[in-house]
Specification:
There is one protein chain. This protein is α+β, with helices and mostly antiparallel strands. Helices cover about 25% and strands about 35% of the residues. It is built from 3 helices and 9 strands. The protein has helices at about 1-20, 30-40, 95-105, and strands at about 20-25, 45-50, 60-65, 70, 80, 110-115, 120-125, 130-135, 140. A 9-stranded antiparallel sheet has the order 1-2-3-4-5-6-7-8-9, with helices on one face. Strand 4 and strand 5 form a beta hairpin. The chain is globular, with a radius of gyration of 18 Å.
């Protein structure tokens, strides 16, 4: 019993140690992540890059000097964009979501976009948060 408990504690400790955030250089980002940043953001204004986890469980957070933030998975696939001033680059948001916003919330812009297990989530500059399923049907609207 004591050996089993000790093994469980050691396993949890090693998992926790592996999931600690660490600051890395921009060049250590996956190529896909660097491509997104160089195409839609200002690489020069990157404040820091943080890696959480390793290997296939790694996640990357890129923070810019203006406090905008972009997150990627281990392959460099976009997970989220959070814009503090301005709007999420339209090419990063699926067309069906952009059309829904234009048709139903004219004049508002998307300031946050994320890919979730259930689908997608956006936040508009007016404060509304909208969840979409994987087929881009509205699941929930929250203020």
């Amino acid at each position: 019993m004591k050996k089993t408990l000790l093994m469980v504690v050691l396993a949890l400790t090693s998992l926790t140690a592996c999931s600690k955030d660490r600051i890395i250089s921009y060049d250590q980002l996956p190529a896909n992540a660097k491509n997104v940043i160089e195409k839609y953001f200002d690489k020069v204004n990157v404040s820091y890059v943080k890696q959480d986890g390793t290997g296939m469980w790694a996640e990357y957070e890129v923070k810019f000097m203006n406090m905008d933030e972009v997150e990627f998975d281990s392959k460099g696939t976009l997970k989220s964009v959070d814009i503090r001033s301005g709007e999420v680059p339209s090419a990063l948001v699926p067309q069906l979501i952009r059309t829904y916003v234009a048709d139903n919330f004219a004049g508002q812009v998307i300031i946050k976009y994320s890919v979730e297990k259930y689908g997608h989530e956006i936040k508009l500059n007016g404060g509304l948060e909208i969840e979409f399923d994987k087929s881009f049907n509205v699941r929930k609207i929250d203020d």
